[in-house]
Design goal:
single chain, about 725 residues, mainly beta, Immunoglobulin-like, 5-stranded antiparallel beta sheet, about 50% strand, extended
Length: about 725
């Protein structure tokens, strides 16, 4: 049973200024009291906080042997709280769960009351020593909450106030709260208490939430006779501004980064990592901080040791087991300023520096002037944009007479170059005039004609453009019905629209010559990699892994094609699976022929096979001729290799070899500009074990890393230029 004693005679003074009410702040005084019928001398009552109530309490309170009563006042931080109250009765433990909600009108007058029956008398339910005594809550035959009277009859509390409210969403993050209170004597006085700040009187209260999260709303009601009641609800706000009383079915990790403030000034090199995650209560937090440490606090304050680009991640697990992770990049400048803006380096390697493409530079050659940085961070004299010839062809017309048959109008749309230009127009390969206007007209006979425009600048530079036109028998210029790439009049198969390569299901796009060009020229390729399963000793996480006998890990390394695959695994023992990452238990130790077939969304198919087996000790041996007599059960787990890359313009084509590696790991990548990259190696526990900075040039680059210094295990290689990053797994073998 839950017993919640609220103040039922809160008399409001005539001059109470509700509009000036403030949000109660902890700690709150909460009194836990009660009575033990037929208590024994020396009895105590244990009071323990539950359901995350803060601060945590676990105390024993003595029972007065004369009155058989007990009581204690606690200073609590939680606006709502729950206690487990227990005592020994005749050798048995009796318990009761009670809860409280802070009274916003009088936040230090909060009471909960418990009654225990340690005698042999029957309670109102006929239970010897039971706690269903007169005055305690019960459920009436009509299903209402009532109380036992002195005759042990469960009667309605018709005169009590029953606080109630609902809400209506009016816009993202905005709701209106309305009271639906019943009972007592009207009119009611309402006081709303919002966990995100403010106590507001009245009804129909509009409230705006600052962002996603879980909030508490309480309504404190007093009727005309001074009787009161209160109720609280949790409100869930999602990332899109949706507001609901219902816990979210999923969860979403969310974090914000702000500088630590001292008044109006930011404290250099210090940042607040603030949780704004949503999910079913209660959320467990795990922070991955920039210094490699972890924390389970909800919010963090962090001090950076110097300027640079850092990463921070937050992993949450909600009360329903939903997990979500979010990461962000934090940039700290030379002055200790904190920012989450995208990080980039200029051509001089300076974070957010001014030396960017198109700005002046000096190549060190006294014979050259006017150098500017190029998009590849090369410093060279500025090259003028070459001219590009262009004109459009339409039917000539006049406002009075409309279209003029057989007369075409050519309008110049050329760009670039250094003018002024002279224009020469050529019709059907014959120059009509060599110094004409930029726009012109010409008369044509029925048929197909070729028109060219030649532009010449003052220094001899120039460009040209040619186009054909068709004149029908009525003098219409380019007036024929258009034919699409499939030969259909007014058809939709035009250049730039989707197509299907004939005889296949491969998707493509019509080019300017009406050829159906595949959208993806990289063929699909099935593949996997078999390794021995292993485990890391929790008491020695930095040591080498220990092989797990009779268990193999298979990494699905399929790539190419569209990237949207369906898989079919043939385990070689008469069974198969269509899962991407299945688990399979073999009846023996092998060998078995394991095959993976894939099909992508464009219809590309491929198959890869390999033989697997383990020896008498359960250790992977690859191909084992003859099979052997060992029939120990072999377990196979297919694992996502987690090879990811961000295909940005500046970095790409990351490759590492050999993989697995024992000594030197070779690394190649392509960079679109000169600059620097940071190389990090992260172990399976998420700890950064090695860092280095390398200079890269525009084009292909080769780097080296000494993996021989690492313990055996799986590692993640991360390469970043501050704005983009590439990652790839590799294995350090024994």
């Amino acid at each position: 049973m839950k017993h919640l004693f609220r103040s039922i005679s809160i008399a409001l003074a005539a001059g109470l200024g509700l509009t000036a009410a403030a949000q109660p702040t902890p700690p709150f005084d909460v009194t836990v009291a009660g009575n033990i019928l037929n208590c024994a001398p020396g009895s105590t009552v244990n009071i323990t906080t539950i359901q995350g109530t803060q601060p945590a309490v676990d105390i024993d309170v003595p029972v007065d042997p004369q009155t058989c009563t007990f009581g204690v006042t606690l200073a609590m931080d939680s606006y709502q709280g729950w206690f487990l109250v227990s005592t020994q009765c005749n050798g048995a433990i009796q318990t009761d769960n009670v809860n409280y909600t802070v009274n916003a009108l009088d936040p230090d007058s909060n009471y909960v009351y418990v009654i225990f029956n340690c005698g042999n008398s029957l309670d109102c339910m006929g239970v010897p020593g039971g706690n269903a005594l007169p005055g305690t809550p019960c459920t009436t035959p009509a299903g209402n909450i009532g109380y036992y009277n002195t005759s042990c009859i469960c009667v309605d509390s018709v005169a009590s106030v029953n606080a109630c409210f609902n809400m209506v969403q009016t816009a993202p993050f905005e709701v209106t709260f309305n009271s639906c209170t019943t009972g007592g004597t009207g009119p009611y006085s309402n006081l709303w208490d919002f966990s995100d700040g403010g106590a507001v009187p009245g009804d129909g209260i509009a409230h705006t939430y600052a962002g996603p999260g879980t909030y508490t709303v309480c309504l404190n009601v007093t009727d005309a006779d001074g009787n009161g009641d209160s109720t609280c609800e949790q409100v869930y706000v999602d990332a899109n501004g949706g507001v609901s009383f219902d816990p979210p079915t999923g969860c979403q990790a969310c974090l914000t980064v702000t500088p630590v403030m001292n008044g109006n000034n930011a404290v250099p090199f210090q940042a607040n990592f603030i949780d704004c995650s949503t999910g079913a209560p209660t959320l467990d937090h795990l922070w991955w901080l920039p210094n490699g440490l972890n924390s389970d606090q909800q919010n963090q304050t962090f001090t950076f040791q110097g300027p640079g680009v850092y990463g921070v991640c937050l992993d949450i697990t909600d009360g329903l087991g939903c997990e979500s992770t979010v990461c962000d990049t934090v940039v700290v400048d030379a002055n200790g300023g904190i920012s989450t803006d995208p990080a980039w380096y200029d051509c001089m390697g300076e974070l957010w520096g001014p030396a960017v493409a198109g700005t002046p530079c000096d190549d060190g050659d006294p014979l050259t002037t006017g150098e500017v940085w190029g998009i590849d961070c090369s410093c060279a004299p500025e090259v003028p944009v070459p001219c590009t010839g262009c004109f459009t062809t339409t039917q000539a017309s006049t406002p009075a007479n409309g279209p003029i048959p057989f007369l075409a109008y050519f309008e110049n749309c050329s760009t670039g170059g250094s003018g002024p230009f002279q224009y020469a127009w050529s019709f059907d390969n014959g120059v009509t005039y060599s110094n004409g206007p930029a726009d012109t007209t010409a008369t044509f006979t029925p048929g197909t004609h070729m028109v060219c425009m030649i532009m010449t600048g003052p220094s001899g530079n120039g460009c040209s453009f040619c186009d054909s036109l068709v004149v029908d028998a009525n003098g219409n210029i380019n007036g024929n019905t258009p034919i699409d790439c499939l030969g259909n009049e007014n058809g939709t198969a035009l250049p730039g629209t989707p197509c299907t390569i004939q005889g296949t299901v491969i998707q493509g796009t019509w080019d300017s010559n009406c050829n159906c060009v595949p959208n993806n020229t990289d063929p699909c390729e099935a593949g996997f990699w078999v390794i021995q399963a292993y485990e890391i000793d929790s008491l020695n996480p930095n040591g080498s892994g220990t092989p797990i006998p009779y268990e193999l890990w298979v990494w699905n390394l399929s790539e190419g094609g569209t990237g949207f695959y369906t898989f079919h695994w043939d385990f070689g023992d008469g069974t198969s699976s269509n899962e991407a990452f299945p688990t399979h238990v073999y009846p023996g130790s092998g060998p078995y022929l394991l095959c993976l077939s894939l099909t992508d969304s464009d219809g590309c198919t491929d198959t890869y096979c390999d033989s697997i087996a383990v020896d008498a000790d359960g250790i992977y041996q690859g191909i084992m001729p003859g099979g052997g007599d060992d029939r120990a059960v072999l377990t196979l787990n297919v694992i996502d290799p987690l090879i990811t890359a961000v295909p940005e313009a500046a970095l790409g084509d990351l490759n590492v070899w050999p993989n697995p590696v024992q000594g030197e790991l070779n690394i190649t990548l392509n960079s679109a500009m000169h600059g620097t990259v940071d190389l990090m190696v992260i172990d399976a526990s998420g700890r950064t074990v090695s860092t280095a900075r390398h200079a890269v040039n525009s084009g292909n680059n080769r780097l080296e890393f000494n993996a021989g210094e690492l313990k055996a295990g799986i590692y993640l290689l991360r390469i970043t230029n501050g704005r983009e990053h590439l990652t790839q797994r590799f294995v350090r073998t024994y």
